[in-house]
Design a protein that fits this description.
mainly alpha; globular; 232 residues
């Protein structure tokens, strides 16, 4: 039952992301005007959820119930696809551009943006892992909170969505689907609690969004700067 509920949650989250993607695409704002703060609501909520779960007995019980349903009620061997799938949305941006399907930024601009997103995400995730010292569900290590795989995958998914939202929202939907499957596999492989992958997802999305917000200031300092960038 919990397993079906978990899959249902994944499906619902995908719908929410797609809806927000469409709203964010419509609500584009020029660089000099106010940024679209509404686009931060979902990733902020996902991030906060995990922090609340650290001291919430009901949410911790929910984590345990999901683990029991996914891991113990349906015994299985780990499926390490998540180790590779987390990078798929980011790689897709470069593959699509190489195939002639151009995104919104040139190679160097998008590479700087993606590097900034991964730097912010990585520093945040590694700092929290060291500070909170949460034991993984399988007891293999004390660096469970938050999920780095989920953060990496969702940062990459938001990067893909931002680059191709003016081409088709299906690209972003595909990227987020890969990210959600990555997050699910972290729970499926008994590497993380549900709340840990939720927070990882939030951190990843926030990191990518903030990178697009910060980039115009960075771009002005780059050689050959031209005022062409649009803040999401």
């Amino acid at each position: 039952m919990i397993g079906r509920f978990f899959l249902s949650w994944l499906f619902q989250l995908t719908i929410v992301v797609v809806v927000l993607a469409q709203q964010d695409s419509v609500a584009r704002v020029p660089p000099e005007t106010k940024r679209n703060a509404f686009s931060l609501v979902l990733p902020a909520a996902l991030t906060v959820y995990g922090f609340v779960a650290l001291n919430s007995h009901p949410l911790q019980s929910f984590d345990r119930n999901i683990r029991e349903a996914v891991w113990f009620d349906n015994p299985h061997h780990p499926f390490p696809l998540d180790d590779y799938l987390q990078y798929a949305p980011g790689a897709a941006v470069y593959i699509l551009n190489a195939a002639g399907i151009k995104g919104r930024n040139n190679f160097w601009d998008r590479t700087i943006i993606y590097a900034m997103a991964n730097a912010m995400m990585g520093i945040t995730v590694l700092s929290l892992k060291s500070a909170i010292y949460a034991k993984r569900p399988d007891g293999s290590a004390n660096d469970g909170f938050p999920s780095g795989h989920a953060a990496t995958a969702f940062a990459a998914a938001e990067f893909l969505r931002q680059e191709y939202r003016d081409v088709s929202w299906w690209y972003g939907a595909g990227g987020y689907t890969a990210a959600i499957v990555t997050a699910y596999l972290r729970v499926y492989n008994d590497q993380h609690w549900f709340s840990e992958v939720v927070t990882g997802a939030g951190i990843g999305i926030l990191s990518a969004k903030l990178s697009y917000w910060i980039f115009p200031a960075v771009q002005k300092r780059l050689p050959g700067y031209k005022k062409t960038f649009v803040i999401p």
